[in-house]
Amino acid sequence: MSGAMTDGELAAHLAETAGRLLLEVRRSGVFSPGALGKAGDETANAFLVHALQDARPNDGLLSEERTCDGTRTDMSRVWIVDPVDGTREYGEARDDWAVHVALAIDGVATVGAVALPGLGLVLRSDRPVPVPPPGYPLRMVVSRTRPAPEAVKVAEVLGATLIPMGSAGAKAMAVVRGEADIYLHSGGQYEWDSAAPVAVAAAFGLHCSRIDGSPLVYNCRDVYMPDLLICPVALRDRVMAAMAA
């Protein structure tokens, strides 16, 4: 069946299924809070890796929970997955965690799905809908445990309200869903943290870039990504000006 699916359908199906598996692991009640995150990560990773290797055997694969052998960097099509984005939130039985499944083509996050299992939602690049207009005052999502200083300062310049939230996927999808207007992160991430959220956000018509406006490039040998900006195109210049200020 997976061979007959489009890339977008496959990404959404795998993200949703991994999310259901994670909820079952959490509902089992056999893990301590400290062990739950590890069990969830390993379970979802095993499912996603085996499913993608079977469904798309000629594509590359990068996962947070899998050692990279380096072969992916020579490939045009590379799947980038984060089995549990927000392991801490998942372990604490919160809703602000996600499952990321993305396909980067020639370095661009082209196809993606972000499952928010706690909310019963899957946002996908192949089914975009209009994003609600920015609110007033503007709302900016930031880390609930360590807000980036740059984001806090930009919020002050823009008069934006800060919304603390867990995983990167949850924060990005808050902008996609119209629950926030700006996601600016400068504390450092990795490719799997943003590939699927960026693919979805871009498909929904949002601006996605580094905080200096330069493009986000995926499937690099070094998978570290220093910063990220997701916002409506209409707010891009205001956010950039606030950063400069």
From TrEMBL:
Alphabetized Pfam families for the sequence: Inositol_P
Highest taxon, organism lineage: Bacteria
InterPro entries found in the cross-reference section: CysQ/Inositol_MonoPase, Inositol_monophosphatase-like
SUPFAM superfamilies: Carbohydrate phosphatase
Protein name from the UniProt record: 3'(2'),5'-bisphosphate nucleotidase CysQ
Organism of provenance: Sphingomonas albertensis
Upper classification of the organism: Bacteria, Pseudomonadati, Pseudomonadota, Alphaproteobacteria, Sphingomonadales
